[in-house]
Design a protein that fits this description.
alpha/beta; TIM Barrel; 15 strands; three-stranded antiparallel beta sheet; Enolase-like, domain 1; 13 helices; about 40% helix; globular
């Protein structure tokens, strides 16, 4: 099955007002993403999603579209869609970086491989290690304390047992927000905080000690992504597991984190890692060194969420039972781009078990949403 065409669609979908995200990186009210359609001479086609946010990965929907159309597609035409090795070599030869754009192409190829085999992608990756229904945490924006407390209590009532709170701004405001949430949800709900690299090491240590009374379960990315030494310093100074997210894009990043004993957990997802297989291989590498992994989120739509779910099912070191992740992105948005949306009920996400990614792209809706390409 040779690749004959690669098509892109740049879309804009707003978040529902009550789910608009606030973090140390700013406000996320609208998602500008890029979808990919890969077609073959065997009449098979697959879909991928570049879940890009410029303040986080440096990629945009415009840059992803240009990279895919102008750099990746010319090298991939005529390549066997089942040869993931060759596909990765072509993508890397065309451009460094651009992990979310590369992942979009790669997940579309996995989608085709699964459809051709009549099997879900998680079986192609090695088979399921857990059930299809995965419990997620709820990610709470850096809202005012009263609003944060109200939303957290509502989510706990909806069945969530783990709440992640965005911090990384002014320490006194962060402390007030976390304490308000703890008071609202009671002592038995697991709370973790995510600074998105917004603190330096000294501020992180001081603020986390100030939150000792809140009995946090974990801190995610307490310092900027390049400060591996600072991450290790925080880990030595606090009695909490430390999760790396922005600090871990490539295998080399993971090796440096391991070498410096800078984290206990790593947040992985296909987009950030540049593809499903690379994410799987990094989960394998982390396991060899006793580092757990969980699934992270960039507020994906259903397509990338499906890819995330297949990764979670396929690798035992995606320890979502111990460190719940987040695959709730589709319900943050006011429109869906697939015909049968992924089932999300409170904290429970059901990973599709159909062939390929197990989702059916709604191409008429996608084309309509992409028609205004401002």
């Amino acid at each position: 099955m040779k690749i004959t065409r690669i098509e892109t669609f740049r879309l804009r979908i707003a978040l529902v007002p009550e789910r608009r995200m606030v973090s140390a990186l700013g406000h996320h009210d609208v998602s500008h993403y890029c979808l990919v359609r890969v077609q073959t001479n065997g009449a098979m086609e697959g879909v991928g999603e570049a879940t890009v946010t410029p303040r986080w990965s440096g990629e945009t929907a415009w840059s992803a579209q240009a990279a895919i159309e102008q750099l990746f597609a010319p090298r991939l035409l005529g390549v066997d869609v089942r040869d993931i090795d060759q596909i990765e070599r072509c993508l890397d030869a065309a451009a460094v970086g651009n992990p979310f754009a590369k992942a979009a192409v790669e997940m579309a190829c996995w989608d085709i491989c699964g459809k051709a085999a009549g099997r879900p992608v998680y079986e192609l990756l090695g088979g399921p290690c857990r059930g299809q229904r995965v419990a997620c945490r709820f990610s709470l924006g850096a809202y005012r304390p009263d609003r944060a407390a109200r939303i957290a209590a509502d989510r706990v009532a909806a069945g969530f047992s783990t709440i992640k709170i965005k911090v990384g701004g002014q320490p006194d405001e962060d402390v007030a927000r976390v304490r308000a949430v703890r008071q609202a949800v009671g002592p038995n709900v697991e709370l973790l905080v995510d600074a998105n690299g917004g603190w330096d090491a000294a501020t992180a240590i001081q603020t986390l000690h100030a939150l000792d009374d809140c009995r946090l379960a974990l801190v995610e990315q307490p310092v900027p992504r390049g400060d591996i030494g600072g991450m290790a310093q925080v880990r030595r100074a606090i009695d909490l597991p430390v999760m790396a997210d922005e600090s871990c894009f490539e295998p080399f990043d993971l090796i440096e984190l391991i070498r410096n004993e800078a984290c206990d957990v790593v947040s992985l997802y296909p987009g950030k890692q540049g593809g499903l297989r690379r994410a799987y291989e990094m989960a394998q590498l982390a396991e060899q060194h006793g580092v757990a992994c969980s699934i992270g989120s960039n507020l994906e739509w259903d397509i990338a969420t499906a890819a995330m779910g297949h990764l979670v099912l396929a690798h035992r070191n995606m320890q979502v039972e111990r460190y719940p992740g987040d695959m709730l992105g589709p319900v943050y948005h006011d429109q869906r781009v697939v015909r049968q949306p992924i089932a999300i009920e409170g904290p429970l996400v059901t990973v599709p078990d159909g062939a390929g990614l197990g989702i059916d792209a709604d191409w008429p809706t996608i084309a309509r949403l992409a028609s205004n390409r401002q």
